[in-house]
Write a structure and sequence with these properties.
EC number: 2.1.1.14
CATH class of the largest domain: Alpha Beta
Strand content: 5-15%
Largest sheet: 7 strands, parallel
Number of domains: 2
CATH architecture of the largest domain: Alpha-Beta Barrel
Low-confidence stretches: 280-296
Mean pLDDT: 92
Structural class: alpha/beta
Shape: globular
Number of helices: 26
Distance between the termini: 77 Å
Function: Catalyzes the transfer of a methyl group from 5-methyltetrahydrofolate to homocysteine resulting in methionine formation.
Strand order of the largest sheet: 1-5-7-8-9-10-11
Binding site for 5-methyltetrahydropteroyltri-L-glutamate: 20-23, 113, 118, 519-520, 565, 609
Radius of gyration: 26 Å
GO molecular function: 5-methyltetrahydropteroyltriglutamate-homocysteine S-methyltransferase activity; zinc ion binding
Number of strands: 21
Pathway: Amino-acid biosynthesis; L-methionine biosynthesis via de novo pathway; L-methionine from L-homocysteine (MetE route): step 1/1
């Protein structure tokens, strides 16, 4: 007989280390400064410290296999043997990092956003001929590692349906093939894995299926039913928790409720108890499956792992509201377990380390450690609350607020603007530029840290910033770039820098969150009304422009992205918060124009990220998000060229909204995805810069490779509207890599200009 699920758990935990120990170990290993043994020892310590800390906090159900050297989806591809032949290497770690980062002469796999978060995952390639084979070494090793510490754990895996829905067809796949076509083969590998874990004595396994909270077709729901019927009926397996998060399961809930599995994980922060009530309603998708209408008894035989503590924000949980939710679920389920709504991967480690925050604000915050304590406390409270009586469910309080009208008056038509800008800027065909940032050297980072610690003065720091700007401008002129940037040496991050200069934000010192691989950010905390007390970027843009006769871009982050990459107050509608930030950006655009800056880039890489997972909610979001961007930029004159940038975010899914932004030039990721977006953009009506240099990989593209990419782009984009640029900012690369790559980019553009002329 299988054991019951523990009373409290989390779906995952941060894995980079409280002081980014894994980040440093990874980068040292990649640079050849340390050995594989050194890297593995750091990873072991991070895992051990996590398990010990979770146990010390009183958490009963400890997850394992949530650690990753780069990304959990990439880990799953390796687990299943889904490794494209071009990456295979005698060294398993070399194979793994080649898929993530590329290798000599080989581009990495595509990377994109994990649902509506700022976490990025590596996109697997699956074809009709992909040979799947089980490599269970990693999950088994972590179970044994924790057991050696006296701790039993629950391995966590990306579920088979989500894995295939997030994959892309291999390049040589026939038309009409979809990775989900290989579900039967993948499920058989999962079956073998479950048998091995059962033989190891594992009691429970967690299979994550977040793709089920988006709109799914009847065929996809049938695939879910088939997969979990097969896995649930295995004779020798651990008990199964199928976890969803980021919203309501909708039509997928009755499918999972009817499957022969022991537990279902529900996000009851973004989802609702009413989503559970939907079990009693027949929908088209369920009818098409032939699944009978399921009433309130459907979950009686199931454990519900109730995600009532948010894994996506940093606000303390309303205990009364959470308890009311738990009791409501307990009326409908066989057993209720208290959990986080999703993995805590998306929040920092410990708010108690943030001694520099205002104490009143800190009292409102909960990072990963505090959220685990909330889960444990709620589990004890639930156990101590007798019966199934349902108390009043307090409604979320939203303070009254008057929304001021903001209507963008609109700029002149693009043709009029393009003519005015051509006359004013006098740019060549195929103008070469970059996205904004240049490498953040160790010297710059140390100087910024020394300034924060009071070890150097503001004057010394600014002198260093000016010197860096001078070098960046000189380098771009020497390489032959046409529209220059100042390199952003004064900025620690494209969002945090603005947060530090706007009222209504607070920034942390240790609040790091993993974005991908070794890349971490410190999301600001947006806790009050946003105002811009003074210009933010103008003096550095003006200084850079004074060093050259070529145009220098003013560099701003867009309002949607600033909000998306912050932890945002929950007492105002998100739309209103975005428009408050748009007001500040609009003021900054006006001041840059007044300072003589005639090219201004307002980046919105998070525009796609915030799109709701359910189609019914998407149009309303895109309408106000586009309106906020246009409010921020529409005050610019027709002579000022407005650029925007979107990267690694499946921008092809929102092309109409990108077009509606009405930017004069849009740059997009293209190198890593091998021009996938170009087929979708078609006759884009304004300037377009499909990236030709993948800055997330250390490899340097040759001039021939860049010329080929540009030639392919010219099949879709007219030469007079084609821009030449990297995929993203250059801050994570070294100057050696950047100089070599940009030299090749400029050479390729020059060759094509000669051919076209």
């Amino acid at each position: 007989m299988r054991s019951s699920f523990p009373a409290s758990t989390v779906l995952g935990y941060p894995r980079i280390g409280p002081d980014r120990e894994l980040k440093r170990a990874l980068e040292s290993y990649w640079e050849g400064r340390s050995s594989r043994t050194d890297l593995e020892e750091t990873a072991r310590r991070v895992r051990e410290d996590t398990w010990r800390r979770l146990a010390a906090l009183g958490l009963e159900g400890l997850p394992s296999n949530t650690f990753s050297y780069y990304d959990q989806v990439l880990d799953t591809a390796v687990l299943l043997g889904a490794v494209p032949g071009r990456y295979r290497h005698d060294d398993d770690l070399a194979t793994y990092f080649a898929m993530a980062r590329g290798a000599e002469g080989i581009a990495p796999l595509r990377m994109t956003k994990w649902f509506d978060t700022n976490y990025h995952y590596i996109v697997p390639e699956i074809g009709p001929d992909t040979v799947f084979s089980l490599d269970a070494a990693k999950p088994l090793a972590e179970v044994r590692e924790a057991r050696a510490l006296g701790l039993e754990t629950r391995p966590v895996l990306v579920g088979p349906v989500t894995f295939l829905l997030l994959s892309q067809a291999a390049p040589d796949s026939p038309d009409g093939f979809a990775p989900l076509d290989r579900l039967d083969d993948v499920v058989e590998v999962y079956a073998r894995l479950l048998a091995e874990l059962a033989a190891e004595g594992v009691g429970w396994v967690q299979l994550d299926e977040p793709a089920l909270v988006a709109d799914r077709t009847p065929a996809e729901l049938a695939a879910v039913e088939a997969a979990y019927d097969r896995l649930g009926r295995l004779e020798h397996r651990p008990a199964l928790l199928v976890a969803s998060y980021f919203g309501d399961l909708g039509d997928a809930l009755p499918v999972l409720a009817g499957a022969p599995i022991e537990a279902v994980g529900l996000d009851l922060v973004r989802g609702t108890v009413e989503g559970v009530e939907a079990l009693g309603v027949k929908t088209l998708g369920v009818e098409a499956l032939g699944v009978k209408a399921l009433g309130a008894e459907a979950l009686r035989g199931k454990t519900v792992v109730a995600g009532v503590v948010s894994g996506r924000d940093v606000w303390r949980t309303d205990r009364e509201r959470a308890l009311a939710t738990l009791l409501a679920v307990r009326q409908r389920a066989g057993r209720v377990v208290v959990s986080t709504s999703c993995s805590l991967l998306h929040v920092p480690y410990d708010v108690e380390r943030e001694t520099g925050l205002d104490p009143a604000l800190r009292e409102r915050l909960a990072f990963a450690e505090q959220k685990v304590a909330e889960v444990v406390g709620l589990a004890a409270l639930l156990a101590a609350t007798p019966g199934r009586d349902l108390p009043d469910h307090p409604a979320a309080q939203e303070r009254p607020h008057a929304f001021p009208a903001r209507t963008a008056e609109g700029r002149a038509p693009y043709a009029v603007r393009a003519a005015a800008q051509a006359e004013h800027l006098k740019l060549p065909l195929l103008p070469v530029t970059t996205i904004g940032s240049f490498p953040q050297t160790g010297e710059l980072r140390r100087a910024r840290a020394a300034l924060a610690a009071g070890e150097i003065g503001e004057a010394a720091y600014e002198s260093m910033v000016r010197a860096e700007i001078e070098q960046v401008i000189a380098l771009q002129e020497r390489l032959g770039l046409d529209v220059l940037v100042h390199g952003e040496p004064e900025r620690n991050d494209m969002v945090q820098y603005f947060a530090e200069h706007l009222d209504g934000f607070a920034v942390t010192r240790h609040g790091w969150v993993q974005s991908y691989g070794s890349r971490c950010t410190r999301p600001p905390i947006l806790h009050g009304d946003v105002r811009r007390p003074e210009p933010i970027t103008v003096r550095w843009a003006r200084y850079a422009q004074s060093l050259t006769s070529r145009p220098v871009k003013g560099m701003l982050t867009g309002p949607v992205t600033i909000v998306a990459w912050s932890f945002v107050r929950d007492d105002l509608p998100l739309r209103e918060v975005v428009f408050q930030v748009a007001d500040a950006v609009r003021q900054e655009v006006g001041d840059l124009e007044e300072a003589g800056i005639r090219v201004i880039q307002v980046d919105e890489p998070a525009l796609r990220e915030l799109v709701p997972l359910r189609r019914a909610e998407q149009a309303a979001y895109l309408q106000w998000a586009v309106a906020a961007y246009r409010w921020a930029t529409s005050g610019a004159s027709e002579h000022t060229q407005i650029h925007t940038h979107l990267c690694y975010s499946d921008a092809d899914q929102i092309l109409a909204a990108i077009d509606a932004l009405d930017a004069d030039v849009t740059s997009i990721e293209s190198a890593r995805s091998r021009g996938r977006l170009l087929g979708a953009v078609g006759a884009f009506p304004r300037g377009l810069g499909p990236g030709v240099y993948d800055i997330h990989s250390p490899r340097v593209p040759g001039a021939d490779e860049v010329e080929h990419l540009l030639t392919e782009a010219l099949r879709t984009v007219p030469a007079e509207r084609l821009w030449v640029n990297p995929d993203c900012g250059l801050k994570t690369r070294s100057y050696e890599q950047v100089e070599a790559a940009l030299a090749n980019v400029a050479e390729a553009a020059a060759r094509l200009r000669d051919r076209l002329s």
